[in-house]
Amino acid sequence: MMEIFLGGLSPSVFAMAFGVTLMAGIVKGAIGFALPLIMIAVLPSFMPAQTALAALILPVVVANAHQSVRFGFHDAWVSAKAYWRIIALTLVGIAISAPFAVVLPQYIMFLLLGSAVMIFSVLQLTGWKPDIPEHRRNPIQYALGLIGGLYGGISGVWGPPVIVYLLATKTPKREMVCIMSVIFTVGGVMLLAMHLQTGLLNAQTLPLSLAMLVPSTLGLFLGYMVQDRLDAEKFRRYALIMLSISALNLLRRGFLG
After folding, report:
1. Which residues 6+ apart lie within 8 Å of 84 measured at CB?
2. Per-residue pLDDT of the chain (257 residues; tens, 9 = 90+)
């Protein structure tokens, strides 16, 4: 029975995936994001990139749905209405790019994943926040939503452009986490639907993604518990450094073919 949830992985590799997903859940609960970033940056180090993408889909949907509801349905709905442009174009982007996830060679997947994680980590570590004038915010929301969605369909990560935008517009932390949770939930549902069609989520990988709900949910609640007891900025910085190292490893594997 247990073999069903291994997704074709050996028990030792499954155990490593469990540990990585647990840590990703803790970071998600503590700072509000980075669950798919950590999973997609680390898991391909010891499993195929497509399997790693499949594994993170259900944890992303469930964790962000819970985080959205935690803020209350009213706040979630207000966020959805305020940022509908990003949400709509994210969905379009995911729908366009998701079919390519099952046909891209492994080395291209590694290069795409590594570059996305590295760019985001460096921007965050350097504190870069572009100045976005009020009159340009609507068209920029369309553009960032589409860019994030196009990347998200093949990598499972569409948050970096949104996070950079929210930081640039000086969005309050609580509102920012709520907005991100809504965008990630809706995008996750689209990603789930698309990869059920592409076959990336199948009889082998769907049980694996289901199994990863256990460590991701446990980690999420552990993250909630430590949220108010840790130096969030220092914790975020350590997480970004770890992501940068993982991204370098992905790039190395991509360049080596």
Report:
1. none
2. 567 777 788 999 999 999 999 999 998 998 888 899 889 888 988 999 899 999 999 999 999 999 888 878 888 898 889 899 999 999 999 999 999 998 888 788 888 878 888 888 888 788 877 778 888 889 999 999 999 999 889 888 888 888 888 878 888 878 888 898 999 999 999 999 999 999 999 999 999 999 999 999 999 999 988 876 777 677 777 777 877 887 888 888 888 86
- Residue pair 36/181 in contact (Cβ under 8 Å)? The answer is no
Torsion-angle region of 8 (φ positive above 0: left; ψ -120 to 50: alpha; else: beta): left
199 DSSP 8-state letter:
S
Cα–Cα distance between 253 and 211 in angstroms, integer?
27
Can you tell me the distance from the alpha carbon of 166 to that of 175, in angstroms, rounded to the nearest whole number? 9
